[in-house]
Amino acid sequence: MGYIMDLRKIVGSRPLIMVGACVIVINAQQQVLLQLRKDNDCWGLLGGSMELGESLEQVAIRELYEESGLTANNLTLLSVYSGEKFYYQYPHGDEVYNVIAAYECKEYTGGLQCDQEEATDLQFFSLSNLPKNMSPPDQPILEAYIKRIG
């Protein structure tokens, strides 16, 4: 998050439009991979913000690898999400309006490795039994995904 951190030095915690990507990783048992985030103690999708010069697909691939140790072999763009539902205030006060490209990944390689700086756990969950404490910006994306495949 170098670009966003650099902007924060200038604008403080005021709302920013933050463009990024998330990845809905689905395993052979049709379970979704979630991370237990350190910043809000909620389960969420893997993903993050765009750096200068990156494409949205590059963001998804980079963030998936950084946060899980998995390499995406194939990504499918599901949708791009934005608007009031994707406003978020981080626990430390920074405000963002997210613009999120959501990708599905069913083909990946590597072994799970949790990024200890951002998360405390990585787990696969049944789509019909997701944790109660979901990260707010990820909730509507997962709901749309479940409806789409349902």
In percent, how helical is the residue content?
Answer: 10-25%
Cα distance, first to last residue? 34 Å
Radius of gyration: 15 Å
Question: Helices and strands, in N-to-C order?
Answer: HEEEEHEEEEH
- DSSP E strands, number: 8
Low-confidence stretches: none
Sheet of most strands: 5 strands, mixed
Shape summary:
globular
Number of helices: 3
Kindly provide the name of the CATH class.
Alpha Beta
- CATH 4th-level superfamily: Nucleoside Triphosphate Pyrophosphohydrolase
> How many domains in all?
1
Percent of residues in β-strands: 35-45%
- SSE class: alpha+beta
CATH topology: Nucleoside Triphosphate Pyrophosphohydrolase
The mean pLDDT is 96
Examine the secondary-structure arrangement and name the CATH architecture.
Alpha-Beta Complex
Notes on the protein architecture:
It contains three helices and eight strands, in the order H-E-E-E-E-H-E-E-E-E-H. The relative contact order is 0.25. The chain has a single domain (about 1-150), classed as Nucleoside Triphosphate Pyrophosphohydrolase. Strands 1, 4, 5, 6 and 7 form a five-stranded mixed β-sheet that branches. Strands 3-2-8 form a three-stranded antiparallel β-sheet, with no helix packed on it. Helix content is about 25%, strand content about 40%. Strand 6 and strand 7 (about 95-110) form a beta hairpin. The chain is α+β, with helices and mostly antiparallel strands. The protein is globular. It starts with a helix and ends with a helix.
